[in-house]
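agent> step 3/5: call structure_predict on target 'DNA gyrase inhibitor YacG' (Simplicispira metamorpha).
agent> reason: downstream docking stage needs a structural representation; sequence fetched in step 2, passing through unchanged.
tool.input:
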Amino acid sequence: MSTTPPPASPDSPAARQVPCPTCGGPSLYSPQNPWRPFCSERCKQIDLGAWASEDFAVPTEAPPDDAPYGDPRLQN
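tool.output (status=ok):
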């Protein structure tokens, strides 16, 4: 008696090595890496701390001193 094997599941994409954004070391970009794209929990926490202390910011022009902040209805 011959049985046919079940259809093969599609192969998952190969894991990639990417540079860690914090230290530049190799980091596995894969679901198996819980800290991706970082290489370790330490690098992830360093990055979080940098955001929390506002070391990173979106560049914007500062409004004039006499301009109201926040409400666009008050800016005209």
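agent> step 4/5: record observation. Confidence is low (pLDDT under 50) at residues 5-10.
agent> proceeding.
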